[in-house]
Amino acid sequence: MSRAAAAIPSDHDVFRAIADPTRRAILDRLRVGQAPVNDLAAGFQMSRPAISKHLRILKEASLVRERRSGRQRLYQLQPGPLRDVAAWVESYQQFWRSNLSLLKQFVESESEP
């Protein structure tokens, strides 16, 4: 795989990134605004390097953006890739609505005399 192709995130990267509860918590924290890595790490019972590793995975999935401000690295949420996840979840919501409707029809037909 070329370096250019490796730099393009796949859907798998986004799903892998949000599979971890720590990374989801980081994304939740970043919904309120950008934050430096030290502030993000303060909210977890793990080392700063461990948080940096989680941030790297989120960055590789294009879910966060990093920028330098003096000596600090600030992280900001980029929710765009989550649209694919939302669309995937929506397809299951439609599936369940349809199946629950069919179940309701079955139960109602069985209860008729």
What does this structure look like?
The chain is built from six helices and three strands; from the N terminus they run αααβααββα. It has two domains: 76 residues, Arc Repressor Mutant, subunit A, CATH 1.10.10; 33 residues. The chain starts with a helix and ends with a helix. Helix 2 packs antiparallel against helix 5. By secondary structure, the chain is of the alpha+beta class. The radius of gyration is 20 Å and the shape is elongated.
Draw up the topology in text:
Elements: H1 3-7, H2 11-18, H3 21-30, E1 35-36, H4 37-42, H5 48-60, E2 64-69, E3 72-77, H6 82-111
Antiparallel strand pairs: 1-3, 2-3
Helix pairs in contact: 2-5
List the main descriptive attributes of the protein structure presented here.
113 residues, disordered N terminus, 3-stranded antiparallel beta sheet, alpha+beta, Arc Repressor Mutant, subunit A, single chain, 3 strands
- CATH structural fold name of the largest domain: Arc Repressor Mutant, subunit A
Strand content: 5-15%
Q: Tell me the name of the CATH class of the largest domain.
A: Mainly Alpha
What is the rounded Rg? 20 Å
* CATH architecture identity of the largest domain: Orthogonal Bundle
The CATH homology group name of the largest domain: Winged helix-like DNA-binding domain superfamily/Winged helix DNA-binding domain
Question: Biggest sheet: strands side by side, in what order?
Answer: 1-3-2
Structural class: alpha+beta
Helix content: 55-70%
- The DSSP helix count reads 6
Give helix and strand order, one letter per element, not per position: HHHEHHEEH
Mean pLDDT: 85
End-to-end span in angstroms?
65 Å
Q: List the domain count as a whole number.
A: 2
Describe the main β-sheet briefly. Answer: 3 strands, antiparallel
How many E-type strands?
Answer: 3
Uncertain runs with pLDDT below 50, 5 residues or more?
Answer: 1-9
Shape: elongated
